[in-house]
Each structure stands twice: as C-alpha cells, then as structure tokens.
C-alpha cells in the first residue's frame, strides 16, 4: 500500500486526509508549513492538547467554535479567564467540554505570557527546539512517521514546558504540535505538498 494516494480531486497526498475537503485543505495549506505568529502558535498547541484522545478532524471541524470561545486564542485575554468563563465554556456545545483541558488552556495562556516575557515571543522559544536533521524521518513513509510520534526533541520540549507549569503537553502532543507548526516537514515522499512546505521553510525566519 502506498504512503500517499490520489484523492477525488486528482491530487496526490499523504494518506491521512482522505477525501474530506476540510482535512485536505488543512493538509495542503497549513500542516508542515512554518509559523512564527504567537497567537497561531498558542492556538495550535492548545488545540493539540484538546485533540488528546480524539481525532484531529473532530478538532478541525470545531476550530472556529474554539476560536470564538477562547477569544481568538489571544494569550493575554485567555489568561484573564476566571471561574465564570470556565462555567461558560463547560456549557458550550461547539467545543470539547472537558474541564481539565479548558482549565489547562487558561493555565497555559498564563505560562505563555511568562515565556513571551522571558524570550521575547513564543516563536523565539519554540523554534529553539527545531530538531537536528538526523532525528527526522529519512524516508518520509507512513511507517517512519508513525514510529516518530514521539522523538528526543518532542520529549525535551515536553519536559521543558512541564517544568514551566504547562499542562497537556506530553511528548506525543508536542510532536504533533511540531508537525502542525512546520518545525518538521512530515509530508511523505510522493505528496504534492512536500516540496512547497520545504520551500516555505527555506525562506522562513522565526524572528
């Protein structure tokens, strides 16, 4: 079986988006492309935390609801959320109503502000963890990527975040975040997006 397949729109993609148009758009325009914007980085790591135990497509379909519920993932605003906001979010059927994950997002917003004060931006902090070439999958196959759900670097990022008080940031979640923010380009060989993501990284500077 190929690690890619030709979808209904005629494009050759990684196997995982299937024929869902929303998933395909995410795969083609976001996943694996480098991000330096702090609000987008905060959104991505929070949504990866919400995804824990669920499918990413479930989160993707609710993403606009999450954005509305969490003030566009502005860390300064989310950091001010209180018990009343938690109660509001627990009744919001448009998001994942998991108290632990909701409280984690608020906590992590406060931790994010501390990181921004210390490093100047979330981008400056996160991009310090870009993995060395020899840690990245060499063949970019489905088997290689599944085996790399946790890496030395994602474990190091997880450990450092937890040390600073972040929650729902285990090594697997951190590796998914690294893929989503373009720190690693895990589009498989044969995927039509792989070259575009590689070119985007070549011209990218975290700032």
UniProtKB/TrEMBL annotation:
Positions annotated to bind Zn(2+): 14, 27, 187, 191
Coiled coil (UniProt feature): none
GO terms assigned for molecular function: DNA-3-methyladenine glycosylase activity; metal ion binding
Keyword Membrane in annotation: no
Keywords: Metal-binding, Zinc
GO terms for biological process, alphabetical: base-excision repair
InterPro entries xref list: Adenine_glyco (IPR005019), DNA-3mA_glycosylase (IPR052891), DNA_glycosylase (IPR011257), Tag (IPR004597)
Record-given protein name: DNA-3-methyladenine glycosylase I
The species this protein was found in: Hankyongella ginsenosidimutans
């Amino acid at each position: 079986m190929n690690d890619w397949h030709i979808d209904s729109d005629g494009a050759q993609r990684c196997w995982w988006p299937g024929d869902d148009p929303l998933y395909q758009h995410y795969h083609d325009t976001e996943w694996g492309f480098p991000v330096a914007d702090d609000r987008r980085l905060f959104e991505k790591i929070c949504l990866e935390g919400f995804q824990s135990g669920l499918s990413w497509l479930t989160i993707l379909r609710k993403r606009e609801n999450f954005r509305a519920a969490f003030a566009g993932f502005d860390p300064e605003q989310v950091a001010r959320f209180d018990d009343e906001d938690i109660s509001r979010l627990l009744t919001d059927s448009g998001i994942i109503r998991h108290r632990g994950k909701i409280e984690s997002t608020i906590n992590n917003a406060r931790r994010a502000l501390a990181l921004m004060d210390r490093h100047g931006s979330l981008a400056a902090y996160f991009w310090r963890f870009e993995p060395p070439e020899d840690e990245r999958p060499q063949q970019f196959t489905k088997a290689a990527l599944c085996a790399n759900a946790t890496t030395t670097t994602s474990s190091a990022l997880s450990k450092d975040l937890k040390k600073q008080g972040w929650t729902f940031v285990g090594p697997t979640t951190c590796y998914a975040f690294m893929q989503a923010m373009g720190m690693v380009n895990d589009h498989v060989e044969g995927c039509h997006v792989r070259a575009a993501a590689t070119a985007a990284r070549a011209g990218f500077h975290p700032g």
